[in-house]
């Protein structure tokens, strides 16, 4: 039995290596639709290194930022569907932009096919330490006592930070003023300085600020507590059962990939995400690793996009 199992494993590895060799004949471009240094860029470089190791070919990160991620996504959508141009992004690109914008230079389903999902991360509702609200119920009470007088910062209009804040407002039935910033760093600076009382941000941006004591996490927006913030309750635990909104990351390619490229890239990504060192690094970046095959991409888009469009409609949001 062991001999048969060993031969089967060896055959599977040989086929995987053969597919990778048959496909990866020149450098691969991994497009990051956001600026260098941000969370997506950091994770993109980690994935590029892992893919390069397993495909035995260089994978070059190409930052094409602008327009909330649409410039980079449109570039990949127009690229040849040969597997040599890939896109790594979050659901900002795949479901949030399509929900918020009436016109996009790409379609999340017709333009792309999934290589694989990487993982997810909730958003964190943060308060300045001086705000007299130590949890979500107290925040809701305060907001109802001062309708429209409390504001929350996001890292930009039309981002997951913005949408998470609006979804919380709708569910809680409160009025909060949205203040968009050009990125997480300036918004966090304003929160720390007490210029805004609230903010919605990612765990990776939140963690370094907690030690100073000027920022207080009230809740996370996932269905379960974040691995990086296990002491922070979910919104579901805070009185809003069923509330869930996370940012998830995937690598996609232009639709129409050859089978050889699809198999080689999917296997290389799965092997990268199975590496304990890579998983540990992703967790340090606030990502709960959830390696899923490319087919899960369309499933996620089909499930999430209608829900976000409904929330956008109720909130009266539009970015165009």
Helical stretch tally: 11
Share of helical residues: 40-55%
Oligomeric form: single chain
Distance between the termini: 62 Å
* Alpha carbon gyration radius: 21 Å
What is the number of strand segments?
11
What's the main sheet like? 6 strands, mixed
Coarse structural class? alpha/beta
Domain tally: 2
How much of the sequence is in beta strands?
15-25%
CATH class of the largest domain: Alpha Beta
Query: Could you list the spans in which at least 5 consecutive residues all have pLDDT below 50?
Result: 8-16
The overall pLDDT, averaged over residues, is: 90
What is the CATH architecture descriptor of the largest domain?
3-Layer(aba) Sandwich
**Would you give the CATH topology of the largest domain?**
D-Maltodextrin-Binding Protein, domain 2
Question: What's the shape?
Answer: globular
CATH superfamily of the largest domain: Bordetella uptake gene, domain 1
- The side-by-side strand order for the widest beta sheet comes to 2-1-3-10-4-11
- Name the helix and strand elements from N-terminus to C-terminus, one letter apiece: HEHEHEHEEHEHEHEHEEHHEH
Outline the fold blueprint:
Elements: H1 2-23, E1 28-32, H2 39-55, E2 59-63, H3 70-78, E3 85-90, H4 91-100, E4 112-122, E5 124-128, H5 136-145, E6 151-154, H6 160-172, E7 177-180, H7 184-192, E8 198-201, H8 203-210, E9 215-220, E10 246-254, H9 259-274, H10 276-284, E11 288-293, H11 295-315
Parallel strand pairs: 1-2, 1-3, 6-7, 6-8
Antiparallel strand pairs: 3-10, 4-10, 4-11, 5-8, 5-9
Helix pairs in contact: 1-9, 2-9, 4-11, 6-11
Structure at a glance:
The chain is α/β, with parallel strands linked by helices. The protein contains 11 helices and 11 strands.
